[in-house]
Model the fold of this input.
Amino acid sequence: MTAVRYHVVHETRYDYGSAVSLSQQQLHLSPRVLAWQQVEEQSVEVTPAPNWRRDGYDVFGNPVTWIAFHAPHEALRLRSVMNVAVSPHLPADLESSLPWEAVRDHLAYDPTNPEPGGLDATRFLFESPHVRIKHELAAYAADCFPPGRPILVATKALMSKIFAEFTFDPEATTVSTPILEVLENKRGVCQDFAHLMIGCLRALGLSVRYVSGYLLTRPPPGKPRLIGADASHAWVSVYAPGSEYEWVDFDPTNDLLPDTEHITVAIGRDFSDVSPLRGVILGGGGTEPEVAVTVVPIDEEELPAGLHDDGEASEPTAGALRPQAGSEGEAELPPVADPALVAGAGAAGSVAAG
Amino acid sequence: MARTLLAIYPQTTRRYDEMLSEQGAVRDHWREFYRHLDSVGPDEMRRRLEFVDRRIQENGVNYNVYADPSGADRPWALDPLPLIIPHDEWAEVSAAVSQRARLLDAVLADLYGEQKLLAEGLLPPALVFGQHGYLWPCQGIRPPGGIWLHSYAVDLARSPDGHYWAIADRTQAPSGSGYALENRLVVSRVFPEMFRSLHVQHLADFFRDQQEGLIALAPLDEGEQPHVVLLTPGPYNETYFEHAYLARYLGFPLVEGQDLTVRGETVYLKTLRGLKRVHVILRRQDDDYCDPLELRGDSALGIPGLVNVARAGRVVIANALGSGFLGSGALMGFLPAVCRRLLGEELAMPSVATWWCGEKPALDFVRENFDDLVIKPAYSTQRMDPVFGYELKGEERAEMLRRIEARPHAYVAQEMVNLSQAPTWSRAHERRLLARPVGLRAYAVWSPDGYSVMPGGLARVAVGANTRIISMQRGGASKDAWVLTDGPVSEFTMLKPSIGVRDLVRAGANLTSRVVENLFWLGRYSERFDDSARLLRVALARVVEAGGARTPTVLSVMELATLLGVLPKPEEDNEVKQGSEHVLLEAIYDPDQPGSLAGNIRNLMWSATHVRERLSLDHWHSLNRLQRDQQAALRKHPTLTEALAFLDRVLGVSSSLTGFAMDNMTRDEGWRFLIVGRRLERLSFLARSIAYFLRLPSTPGPGSLEWLLELSDSIITYRSRYSRQPELLPVVDLLVFDDSNPHGVIFQASVLARYLERMARELAADFDVDLAGCIRRLQNFDLTRLENVQFSDCSDCPTCEELAGLLHDLHSITVQLSDVLGMRYFTHVGDVSRQTMAL
Done:
């Protein structure tokens, strides 16, 4: 199969209510290049124009941008636009992966080994700000990890267990809800499920990364729409030496292995390393942003035929920021009549989803 | 040799004794000092001890929270006897400490750079990536000069065979060098002859090296002078005393996070004259709190964007961000191999035997030798007191072992150390020495010539003879450490640096907006507490005179006090029920009642605390005394007479404060803000008091004009001029129009106008407040209209009403002025940065 190409627009808007005199923002909005992901075009447009800007890469190799505002402003708008191509990269076979204990022992420190393997993977082995490692997490995962089970089979079992036992509920948690609370209440959003799964795997001595990105929703006729459509999404990536890319992605929110419908933006230890937009402001009133994400497959032939007749996705959510034809600076977007765009904008506007 | 000093001094072979040999003879390097001690008479010794206590008390040397309103601050404990260390012994210690600093600096360079220690298996990833103190955003940042560790401290102990061991490394922002300096200044005066004749090495060279090292690294742009600041988390930090002390000693401005701001890739100090670039931040704030944008986001203490300035190499942060995690005891066992790899040398000083439980064989060892070990946290950010294995029995022990086995990498076990013992002076017995376990914290700072080690350090002794943990927080004491030298003693001193004219000019320009704001409020509060004390004294005296009767005089005074906000508005006959006395006592002593004298004292202390490094020692003493008086009074139920005496004392302290402000403070721009604060407050109080007085709704009693004079502190002037009962015209003339009366409205307004003019000139500002016009309108008031007016039967008279209106206008101007100054020059300490997050 060939690569699938996407056009993504990720808009964020703050209306502060009163003037913000000083503001600094760190952006993880530009997608990274991966063995299976090419970035063809990418730009972030910022209004008002920042007084200062610096682009670079963070310690995990993700593109990062810092911007600063020194003049009073009452609103901030960021518009990240990209064209990305994602190639299929599912692991050929889960059964043939190493027993999970072998991976664990490979990662464990051995003072007698002058050239330890998997050093890079050990960066994702320990506690991180949002993922405290607790024995309850190891206990929760235990039945998925019987002795000798191949790591990818066991991880898939854990993913399915989380998907089956947890309820997607944007009202249940905030960015700072501890994972033990998520484990107890069995509710949350994609971030919570990703953090929980990371905690479980790390508690067993395995390396696992947090992946932030986007997810295309294209409900085939008769099938339900995938949760997390057209918002920032999050999933995990487990270290599996011996597999083609050494890391294999799992999406516990949707109980599937990400392939060509997941677009990776950034990789970190947890959410705190790759928050799309993290800032510090002086002044201002309200700080709740409006966020809208639109994911459009670029090649028309990729669209399922039935979508043209799908009327229920044609009304955008009230208040959502969505690209509109003819509005300033958005000339490169497909016209609003494009059914794919309309489908994409359908679920826009919710912040915590995904 | 006389042995009375040693009558209760135990000899032991279990510990090394700093003063006595195994045979019980006084060691060579102690002999002269011991003889001297023996020759000092008991009275003389008592005088010296008192000197120590007084110095500590008066200098306000405190550990823990000295600004705690409940008065929980504890004076620094200092034993007068120094720990004496011979020259040759110190040479070895010093070389080892310097090597360790070099080593840890190289470890930081590696772990934030190429990470070969991990690649080669010399350090376990858990002790780097697993530590919260390892700051990921700082990877790849190379600080100016390639120096990460600018100041370093290590806790040393001596084993029974006399060898020094490293017990703990301090790499975050080591504290205590300032206390060591203060100890030296005190103890060298307790034993001045000994200090000279023993050739004790001075400390000043060490601090000069620190100063020069920081300045040498400053990343300067063309034509810039290096600007170094000392960053403190603020007055509520347990070692704030030391921050203020060192800032003054090293000549670096003391700043808080809010004083600094980042623009692009440069960090600036917010000063009265605008932003001034900072090149070096000597930080006493933990690194993860330094930048809410990229490090901990849940704290308002930091400087948003600072990591980016570091990334651009535009600031030296000393120590570099991310240095703190090397304080983990778990690393100690790996240091010998790391030292060979990075420095190509053997580690000169051994660390106390340490087992990191994250290694399987180590965990087994810990399980088997639990009784002989101390369990400590592996990560410096973990909060846990050391646990002594032998103290845990039964279920407690099983629980501890379960915790270790669940997360072995989070624990280390250390061999229990028998600390050496040193003599301390007994306060309970005449002429007796006690033996106490002792440890030494040694300090090294980076300088262009390599790491410079403080000759001596901060010696600390345990409370009891068998206490295992030495901790200032647990009531231990400190000691000066005397390192002897064979050669000449360096005479360099930092106490009287020669300051050029340019430095003096710079000092003014460096005034931070926060300091200016606090000085302004210090001025206002010191005047406000004087005003409220005076008003309460007038009221209380009238109540006492009337013997409880609600005379017209009592009523009108109480009414004025209520209008001025010193007494609360009476709720539903509250006053009638409780009586005037009760209301007044609460207004004096209850700090939680708005407008009360006690509340004003608390506010005054608060603003004084925030500018402590700008106040003279005397100034500080008199404030301290005031707070002690007030807190002592809070604890009992004072009688009216006692309350009157307290108010007298408050007014005495207040006038001494005024004297200090006028005579002892440097007259720079900061001082002018303080004086403007005072003038503004007094003018506002006078104008409002007289205006309210003229408009009092109830008929004022016959003695009214007299108490008004007393309230304005002008009764003596009046009597000397008129020698008759007060009448309205001369009273108003004296209190409002007489421009020679410092307690008069016109006098205060004119002085305030002059200060503002000067400030506007110096700061090139336009305050846009019509003070001059207000004064002119008041001066144009025709005094003859008050002739023949009998105040006691005057009510609703238009003349009084007009005068009151003019005074009220003047008061409104003071409010406007305060706002204008605030908007323009202050940091707005209440305005805090907030984190935002979008998905």
Notes: The first helix of chain B runs from residue 28 to 39. Confidence is low (pLDDT under 50) at residues 64-72, 496-508 of chain B. Residues 479 and 665 of chain B are 33 Å apart (CA to CA). The first strand of chain B starts at residue 62 and ends at 63.
